[in-house]
Amino acid sequence: QVQLVESGGGLVQAGDSLRLSCVASGRTFNYYTIGWFRQVLDKEREFVAGISWNGGNTYYGDSVKGRFTISRDNTKNTAYLQMDSLQPEDTAVYSCAAKRDFSGAYKVMIRDYDNWGQGTRVTVSS
Fold it and tell me: In a 3-state reduction of DSSP, which class is residue 39?
């Protein structure tokens, strides 16, 4: 198990950028696939981006492709979500999630993960 803490959210204007961070406890961060999800009130959590344990595979939800970039630094136990060209529809609570896995397989479903952070709020004004 790892504990995850997100940071970096805030209020920005359309077209701006933000970088979210997800810091994990423990010494086995590099054993885990990391995913970012977002949720708007009363809507289902949406997959945003995922990265395999060694960073070799990255993948994105259709709504953020070309604008968001996921990365990780295993020496810092941290994953990042760089969000560029933000739009009002990106407004949500963003959470990171982790699953111990070495397969590199894409994990895009909520049920694929068993460790979750509390989330950080991103608000994009028009």
Answer: strand
Burial class from Cβ neighbours inside 10 Å (0-12, 13-18, 19+) for residue 88 reads exposed
Nearest to 6 by CA among 123, 124, 125, 121: 121
**Local confidence pLDDT in tens for the 126 residues of the chain:** 899 999 999 999 999 999 999 999 987 899 999 999 999 988 999 999 999 999 999 999 999 999 999 999 999 999 999 999 999 999 999 999 999 998 889 999 999 999 999 999 999 999
Residue in the structure block whose two tokens are 């982790």 = 98
Alpha-carbon distances of 74 from 47, 101, 119, rounded to whole Å: 22, 14, 20
- Backbone phi and psi for residue 77, each to the nearest 5 degrees, phi listed first: 55, 40
Structure tokens that stand for 66 in this block: 């070309």
Task: Of 7, 9, 8, give the one whose Cα is nearest residue 91.
Answer: 9
Backbone angles phi, psi at 76, to 5 degrees: -110, 5
State both tokens at 124. 């994009």
What element of type H or E holds 60?
Answer: strand 58-60
